[in-house]
Amino acid sequence: PGCRLQSLRSFRPTLARSRRLLAQTSRPGFRFGNPKRYVQCSKTKTRKFGGQMTDRESPIPTMTLGLVSIPVKENDFQHNLEAVAEVIAQYSSEAIDLFVFGEANLTGLNTTHFKSRTFLDTTSALQAINRVTGEYHASICVGFIEHEAEKFYLTHVLSSDGTTCGMQRKVLAANPTKPSVYTSGKQINPIIFRGYKVVILACADWLTPEPMMQAGIHEPDLILAPTDQFHWEPHSRSVHTKAGQGISFWLQAPLAVAFNSEINPEPAELEVCACLGYDHKGDEVIRKSKKQVERTIYTMTVELKKRRLIWGGFEARRNYVEN
Predict the structure, then answer these.
(1) DSSP assignment of 255-269, as one string?
(2) Average pLDDT for 229-241
């Protein structure tokens, strides 16, 4: 009682006003709250079908990796290098940008009979590796025991089309609290490969935080992780998951892990890790196992340079804490 009803027509916007509102809200990047303002989305004009220009985001660069696990013959550089060449020749038509092999796959790293080992000098080893990549026009990440100035390093090299792109000595080459024949490489050095920054973190170097922090300073685009043999059992898989998610998430770079296996296994049917991979967001892309005596290769395509600065980025966070 006492209320006065108004016609619903008085609440309807005019046709002209509706058209203006529709035109405003249809613009790219429109924000509600102030229909007179909008933000233009940044897009790249690309040609598509008959030369027409279309709005589309710039394509994200990718790289296809071949994660290789082959049984390693201890102390036989030539045999293992021939096995590497066979893999490259077999998959040369697969459009693989970079082959990644297990840790020290050209020599093995067993220290049981270390004194009876024979070692190539570094120059000869690099020449032999570059001959293979030059012959097959391929790119590979392989490793060997480097002997220099009475010291031994677990060294990995990235070779492409007959040229050495760079080398990385393993930082945590042994347990720091125990005596070892191996010497630490001390620091992580980024390698430029096809215009991208690549770091090689072998085995313990990607499983522990200190080398990861060294690598993070360089803001790498890709992390390669040649790794020794691990049994396919719950604890190993759990460790790999935690470390892989952490390093790829915080460094915002894809992680590619290739595992070794022994050539004379006991027992022959033992199941071991073959490969593992994470994208730049810390999400698992691939995880495979194999029998210890098998030779396997799995491909993994990763997106490069698609990062956003999490909490200001690695270097900014580090400087904030230290200063």
Answers:
(1) EEEEE-EESS-SSTT
(2) 96
* CA gap 247, 251 in Å, rounded: 6
User: How far from 185 is each of 139, 153, 168, 205, 312, CA to CA, in Å?
Assistant: 23, 7, 8, 11, 29
**Residues 245, 283: Cα–Cα separation, whole Å:** 7
Determine the pLDDT at residue 36: 40
Sequence letter at residue 160: S
* Mean pLDDT, residues 296-316 taken together: 87
> H/E/C letters for each residue in the chain?
CCCCCCCHHHHCCCHHHHHHHHHHHCCCCECCCCCCCECCCCCEEEEECCCEEEEECCCCCEEEEEEEECEECCCCHHHHHHHHHHHHHHCCCCCCCEEECCCCCCCCCCCCCHHHCCCCCHHHHHHHHHHHHHHHCCEEEEEEEEEECCEEEEEEEEEECCEEEEEEECCCCCCCCCCCCECCCCCCCCEEECCEEEEECCCHHHHCHHHHHHHHHCCCCEEEEEECCCECCHHHHHHHHHHHHHHHHHHCCCEEEEECEECCCCCCCCEEEEEEEECCCCCEEEEEEEECCCCEEEEEEEECCCCCCHHHCHHHHHHHHHC
pTM of the shown model: 0.82
The upper half-sphere exposure of residue 226, i.e. CA atoms within 13 Å in the direction of its Cβ, equals 30
The first and second tokens of residue 105, run together, are 């796959």
H or E, element range at 84: helix 77-90
Tell the residue number behind the tokens 């677990």, with chain if given. Answer: 154
Q: What's the CA gap between 212 and 200, in Å, rounded? A: 10
Q: Any bridge partners for residue 160, and if so which?
A: 139, 163
